[in-house]
Amino acid sequence: MGATAxxxxxxxxxxxxxxxxxxxxxxxxxxxxxxMGLIGxxxxxxxxxxxxxxxxxxAFLEPILGSWAPEGILAPxxxxxxxxxxxxxMVFFLLTAGLSGTFxxxxxxxxxxxxxxxxxxxxxxxxxFFFLSSxxxxxxxxxxxxxxxxxxxxxxxxxxxxxxxPGSGMGMTLWITSMSLFIVSSLIGSLNYIVTVFNLRTKxxxxxxxxxxxxxxxxxxxxxxxxxxVLFSAVLLLLFDxxxxxxxxxxxxxxxxxxxxxxxxxxxxxEHLFWFLGHPxxxxxxxxxxxxxxxxxxxxxxxxxxxxxxxxGSILAIAFISFLVWGHHMFVTGMNPFxxxxxxxxxxxxxxxxxxxxFNYLTTxxxxxxxxxxxxxxxxxxxxxxxxxxxxxxxxxxxxxxxxVHDTYFVVGHFHIVMGLSGTFGMISGIYHWFPKMFGRxxxxxxxxxxxxxxxxxxxxxxxxxxxxGLAGVPRRYYxxxxxxxxxxxxxxxxxxxxxxxxxxFAQLFFIFNIFYSMFKGPKAPQNPWESTTLEWxxxxxxxxxxxxxxxxxxxxxxxxxxxxxxxxxxxxxxxPLREGEEESH
Amino acid sequence: MTDLLILLGVVLGxxxxxxxxxxxxxxxxxxxxxxxxPNARENRFQARLMPGFLIAYxxxxxxxxxxxxxxxxxxxxxxxxxxxxxxxxxxxxxxxPVFVFTHILxxxxxxxxxxxxxxxxxxxxxDNKLEILWTAIPATVLLILVLYGLSVWNEIxxxxxxxDDKIEIELYARQFDWTARxxxxxxxxxxxxxxxxxxxxxxxLDSTDANASDDKYVKAEFYLPVNKxxxxxxxxxxxxxxxxxPHFRAQMNCVPGMTTLFxxxxxxxxxxxKEITGDPDFEYYLLCNKICGAAHYNMKMExxxxxxxxxxKWLSEQKEFLAVEVNEPxxxxxxxxxxxxxxxxxxxxxxxxxx
Lengths: 586, 355
Known about the structure:
Helix content of chain A: 55-70%
Low-confidence stretches of chain A: 1-7
Largest sheet of chain B: 5 strands, mixed
Strand order of the largest sheet of chain B: 3-2-1-5-8
Order of helices and strands of chain B: HHHHEEEEEEEEHEEHHH
Helix content of chain B: 40-55%
Radius of gyration of chain B: 31 Å
Strand order of the largest sheet of chain A: 1-2
Oligomer: heterodimer
Shape of chain A: globular
Number of helices of chain B: 8
Shape of chain B: elongated
Strand content of chain B: 15-25%
Radius of gyration of chain A: 24 Å
CATH architecture of the domain at 166-330 and 346-354 in chain B: Sandwich
Largest sheet of chain A: 2 strands, antiparallel
Number of domains of chain A: 1
Strand content of chain A: under 5%
Order of helices and strands of chain A: HHHHHHHEEHHHHHHHHHH
Distance between the termini of chain B: 75 Å
Number of strands of chain B: 10
C-alpha cells in the first residue's frame, strides 16, 4: 500500500511529477483535464464564429490558425476538424478523465478511509498514459492534413480511408493511437478504483454507509471496465482496415476514381461496437457528476439526501440499462425495425431511475436549510440541466420521432445540456466544494457567484435555441447553412447562439482566475469548511502521505446525518459513535 | 498598438479583480465572518435570484416560441409524417408540464428554504410511499408513450408488398452529390457493382444485365408523384451518407456495401406546399445528414412532388441508361476526383457493349 512504499516527500520529482499519492494524481488529472477542456472550449468558440457569421472574415483568426483559416475564414475541412477534436476532448479528456480522474482519485481513499489507492503505482501509470494520450491528441492538430475530422464518432469508411478527407490520414492514425492510450489509462484507473472501494474501506464503512459519490465513482468504474475494451476492439479493427488491408468495416467502395479491393465488411459493425461504449460513456460522465451533486446538495441543504437506497438503486439501474440502449443511436442505419422497437423500449426505461434521482434531489431541498455556496449553485444548475436535457431524450429515444430529428441540432442541444452541461456543472461544483481539500485554500465566493450566473444564463442561451434549429431540420456538422434557403433563414438564431457562446467562454475567465489566484493567495482552508460529515474532512489540511496522521478513522454511521433531531450541531461526522438509544437511519 | 492596449487592459483588469477579491476577504474577516461561507445577506440575495432565474428562463423559452415558432418545418408532406407529428405533439404535451412542474419545485424550494441560522432542516431520510409513487407514475406514462411510439414505428416500417401500387426509386450517394435512379419500363433495377463505375456509368450499372438497359438516372432534382407510395432504396459509393428529407419526416443512412430501405407517400405537391408556406420559392430538399467530408454541407437534391400525370410525362423525357451509355460516350461526367487507377473490368464491359 502507498503509505509503506513512499518516496522522500521533499524530492520534487517524486512529489509533483511521478507521484503515487492519490491526492497529487488527482491534482494532475484536474490540471491536465481542465487544460484540455479549455482548449476544447476555445475550439468551439472558433467554429461558432463560422456558424454565426458564415463566410465572414475574422482577421485575428489568421495569425492563430494560419492555413486553417485563409484570410480569416475557417476552411470547411478544418471546421470539421475543430468539431471533431472539440467533441473528443470534451467527452473523453475533460468529462471522463478530467472528471473521474480528479474526483475518483481525490475522494475514493479519503471518503472510504484508506491511506491511498490499492496500487499507487498503477494510479501513477494511469495518469501518465492519460498525459501521453493528451499530448498525442494535441500533436495531431499539427500534422499534415490536420487532425481527425470525421466527427468524434469517427465512423468508417470516412475515417478508414485517407482518400476520403484530409483528416483521415496521419491525423486519424494519431487519434487512434491517442485513444488507445486513453483507454489503457481509463482501464488501469477504473480497476484501481473498483479494487480500492471493495477492499480498503475502513472499519465500519459498510457499503450502505458509503457516501453517494463513492457509489457513483464505483459504478462508473465498472461501466468503464466493461465498455472501454469494446471501443478498443473497434479502433483496433479500424487500424487493421487502415493499415493492413483488412475489410472489417469496408465493402464495395469506389473512391478517388477507383474501386477498392475490399469486400464483405460493414461500417454498421463499427457503429455497434462504438455505441456499445458510446452509450455507457454518457453515464460514465453523468454518474460522477450526479454523485458529486448528491454530496453537495445534502451538505449545503443541511439535510440527509432523500432516499439514499433509492439513489443507489437508481445508479445501479441506470448503469445496467445503459448497456442495453446503444441501438438508439442507430435507428436510421437500416437496422431491423424490430431491434429499433426493442431499443426504444429499453431507452425509455432509463427515464424511470433518472426521474427518481430528480425527485430525490427536489425532496432533499424541500425543508432544507440551504447555504448558497458556489458549489451548491452549480449543483442546483445541474438538476435543472439534467431535467431539461433528460426530457428531450424522451423524444430522441422514441424511434418514430428520432427519424426526423436524428443528427440535427435537436440532438446537439439535447446532449450538450444533459451530458455536457450536467457533466461540467457537476465537475465545477465538485471543484468549488473540494478545492480546499485539494489545495488547502478557499476559492473566492463572489467570483464563484458571477461565474455561475454568467455560465448558466449563457449556456442555456447557447443550447436551448438549438432545439428550434433541429425542429426546423437543420443538420449538425454543416460548415454553413447558406446552401439551403430554408436553413439560411435561421441565420439570426445562429448569431444569437454564437454571441452566447462567446459570453460563456469569457465567463470561464472568472473561474480560471479564481483557481490560480486562490491556489496561492486564497484564504487558508479550515479542516472542515462546509461542516460536512464525511471522512475527507477529518484529514489534516496539509496533505500527508497516508492521509491520517495516526490510526485510520472508524466509521459509526452513514454519511448523511445532517440536522439530526436532538443534536446540537447540524451535522454529525461519520466518525462519531451512535449515542445510546440512537438509531442509525438510511 | 491596439494589441498592446488590450494586453494592458487585461493585466490591469486582473490586478483590479485581485484587489477587489482581497479587500472583500479582509472586510469579511474584520466582521468576524469567514469569507467563504455565504452570510445571511448573501444567502438571501442568491435565494431571490432563484425565482428570478426561473422567470427569465421560462420567459426566454416563451420568447423563442413566439419569435421562431412559425419557422419550424411546415405540415408534413407525407402520409406517415402526419402521425409522426401527432406523436411529437403528444410527447410535447406530456413532457412540458413535467418540465415546468419540476423547475418550479426546484427554484421554489431553493428560494423558500434559504439558510436561516434559527431554523433547523427537517430530518427526512426517505419515504417509501412517495418513492414508489414517483417511480410508478413515470413508469406508467412512459409505458403509454412507448406503446404509442411503437405503434407509429410499426406503421412507418411495415414494408410495402408486391401488390401495393407504388413507384420505386434508388437514391445513390457519393462525395458530394446524389443520383436518383428509376427502374424504367420493366420495373426492375439492373444490377450494379462498384467495379463497373466508369465515365457516365457513375452508378456502376451492369450493361450485361437486361434489367439495367432501361434504368433512368437523374441528378440535381427528381420527381415524385403525389398520393402514391414511394419505395426508396439507398446505396452509397464511398462513405456513409444519410438521405434526409425533413419535409417528409424521412431519413435513412446510405451505407457502402448494403442497401437500406424507407418508404413514404407524398401527399402534398410542391405547388401546394408553396401555397401552404406562402413562399413562392419553396422547394423540397433531399440533403445529406451524415458527415461525409468537407463539402457535406452542400450535398443536396431538389425534390419535385407533382401530379401523377406530370410525373409520367417528366419520366418519359428522361434518357434510358443504354441510350446514355451508347450514344453519348463523349459526354463524360467528371467523377469527383480523377485517378489513373481505374478498374479494368469496367472498361472491358463498356467496350463489349459498344461492339
